[in-house]
């Protein structure tokens, strides 16, 4: 970030998006804030906490963590970098279970899915940093979407902000069902 853009961290360890940043700094700042919110909502839970549902939904925090690990790798790895899916996504029969990322988390420990998610986030950060050395937010991904068009880095980051915002709301409800914790 630019030297004149201060980053404040709130009481939950979330970096506040910059008020005076560039387009990239602002968008990435909001994405990082939502990633940190998600980490806060999913932190410190055991396997039982990661498997709680709020009927009629079968959504769990464990499934959500694994799903977001997949989404990070898909958009930043496969689209932005043009890479092929990496483990564990490369061996999944998505036709047999289109929600494998959600369902298979029941077989993993919280530590496993959180490590998978954190590694995906780390790779995504590296992909964005690399892309920004080669162009701005308008650069197009090398992979073409099913619509026949390639998304821009701006679109990918904005989509990820939307993805995290939606799932942070879900995580807030699930976390409250687990242990009564509430907050933003």
From TrEMBL:
<protein>
    <submittedName>
        <fullName>DinB family protein</fullName>
    </submittedName>
</protein>
<dbReference type="Pfam" id="PF04978">
    <property type="entry name" value="MST"/>
</dbReference>
<feature type="region of interest" description="Disordered">
    <location>
        <begin position="1"/>
        <end position="21"/>
    </location>
</feature>
<dbReference type="InterPro" id="IPR034660">
    <property type="entry name" value="DinB/YfiT-like"/>
</dbReference>
<dbReference type="InterPro" id="IPR007061">
    <property type="entry name" value="MST-like"/>
</dbReference>
């Amino acid at each position: 970030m630019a030297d004149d853009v201060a980053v404040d961290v709130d009481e939950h360890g979330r970096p506040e998006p910059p008020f005076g940043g560039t387009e990239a700094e602002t968008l990435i700042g909001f994405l990082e804030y939502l990633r940190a919110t998600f980490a806060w909502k999913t932190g410190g839970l055991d396997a039982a906490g990661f498997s709680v549902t709020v009927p009629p939904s079968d959504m769990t925090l464990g499934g959500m963590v694994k799903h977001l690990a997949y989404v990070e790798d898909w958009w930043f790895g496969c689209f932005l970098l043009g890479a092929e899916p990496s483990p564990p996504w490369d061996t999944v029969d998505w036709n047999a279970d289109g929600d494998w990322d959600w369902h298979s988390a029941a077989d993993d420990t919280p530590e496993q899915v959180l490590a998978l998610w954190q590694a995906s986030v780390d790779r995504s950060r590296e992909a964005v940093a690399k892309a920004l050395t080669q162009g701005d937010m308008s650069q197009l991904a090398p992979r073409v979407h099913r619509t026949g068009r390639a998304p821009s880095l701006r679109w990918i980051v904005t989509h990820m902000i939307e993805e995290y915002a939606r799932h942070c709301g879900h995580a807030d409800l699930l976390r409250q069902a687990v242990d009564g914790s509430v907050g933003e």
